[in-house]
Amino acid sequence: MSLRKDEQALEPVDAALEEPRNAPRKPDLWTVAKGIKAAEFKLENVAKVPCSRKALLYGIGGGTIIATTRFFVTRRLLSAGNWGFASFGAISMLSWEFCRYQRRVVQEQLEAMAAETAKRTEGEKRGRPSANE
């Protein structure tokens, strides 16, 4: 197959637009779905996720209190159930996010302390006094 001159001129540009052959590909939905195992959804694994136990307990407690209060005020069971379920979800989500935020702040503080300690010990090894002395 012979190409005209104008088609040959476009060929390197088209090759540059293609993805490199060795570039890592993003997994598609099917590949991700095949990697999910039923054992990951067992109740015993939920407790292993950081902050999940605390968030669920706060959500259950808050949802129960709000649903009970709503039922005593309105005497409508369906409305109380809706309010309880919605508040369970909102309280669980907010407390989980806040707990994760606190963990991230503490982790950043620990990393900063470790970097400072490494810097001080490096300075002491070289015979220089630390900044606080």
| Secondary structural class | mainly alpha
Q: What is the share of helical residues? A: over 70%
Let me know the largest β-sheet: none
Q: Supply the number of helical segments.
A: 5
Protein model, in words:
- It is found in: Mitochondrion inner membrane.
- InterPro entries: Cox20.
- It holds the Pfam family Cox20.
- It contains 5 helices and no strands.
- By secondary structure, the chain is mainly α.
- It has a domain of 74 residues.
- Helix 4 packs antiparallel against helix 5.
- The N and C termini lie far apart (79 Å).
What's a quick, concise take on this entry?
The chain has helices at 5-17, 29-35, 43-46, 52-74, 77-125. It has a domain at 50-123.
Describe the secondary-structure layout:
Layout: H1 5-17, H2 29-35, H3 43-46, H4 52-74, H5 77-125
Helix pairs in contact: 4-5
Question: Which characteristics define this entry?
Answer:
133 residues; mainly alpha; 72% helix; flat
